Amino acid sequence: MESIFASFADALSLPVAWPTALLLSLAVVVMAELAYRLAFRGLSRLATLTKTTLDDVLLRRLRLPARVLVVLVGFHALLAMRQIHNAGVAQGLAITELLLVAYLIIETIETMVLHYWLGERHGVQVPNVVRHLILIITYTVAALSIVGGVTGINVAPLLATSTVVTVVVGLALQDTLGNLFAGLALSMDRPFKLGDWVYVDNVEGCVVYSGWRATHLQTLTRDIVIIPNSMLSKTRLQNFNAPTRICGRNQEVIVGLHAMPEEVEQACLMAITKVPAILRTPPHKVWFVQTTALFHRYVVRIYVDDFAIHDDAESDFMKALVHELAARQIRIGSVNATAGIDVDGRVVAVATTPAELRPQTMATDSPSTKAAIDPLNPGRA
Fold this sequence. Notes:
This protein has eleven helices and eleven strands. By secondary structure, the protein is an alpha+beta fold. The longest helix is centred in the N-terminal third of the chain and has 35 residues, at 87-121.
């Protein structure tokens, strides 16, 4: 800027008299003021077209520094007209002007990136301590660079010191910064959104809040589970609402040995039709997955359109299934049976899985043994 005014002064064969210099510097101020008004009027009109209020706040914050810059430009022009060469004044004026320009640029970038792009567009609220730390580092580097460029002073040692301080502060805030950057990554990848039901770290819950540090899940028991974003970005996550809200659930059904698979499948499908919360499409499935010496095991897949009601839908399905099986004289059993008959006719003690079957010798003609022959249907012993 100094060279621009000097070239202008040489073209006018300056220095000029004080009245002429004052008039010319006043003209410069008027032109700068006109440019200031036109620029801010246009920006204000653009701000009215947006939904956010951040641009209005930004314009209010920039008006005063911009107007001060206009006055300093006029004063700078006056010094150039009079060719007043004072190293201290010229350097101080240039440093002030450049600092004001740096302020306008940094504040604009802060509002656009931290407040608008991260805060409003991606829902990542940068904490004040981190935001202030970023601003302090940015303003420090800008100020030292401006002072060094204008005065010629070697500011490299100061920059090195500020770098060391930055590293120390970064190490102290590494957990906070880790959560911040993890939250930023999650906001860009968007594996879930508010209101989605997810399964993460052995927790099922609805996402009720997602911030810069942690994500809050509300479980079906209305408890709030807080998961740090750094942990969330490293673990397996299942979203029950993606790609659609339709969610499939598997329901296990245990029945006695006498039950024919066709009858069980028909009872399951009939029970599904009696539960309004269960969707009719996609088509439901019934699998015969296991048979043991004591029971048959089936798995029924049902679909609901809201994960929050899956417990109610499964309960209603089991209620309807009990009635359907009872109408067919089929009783529901349990995998926790304690005694039964193996395929060779020997009485066995049973834990919870077929691998735990242990043959034992028992009198098969006693009343207790007869009742234990089919623990799922003692009447058929």
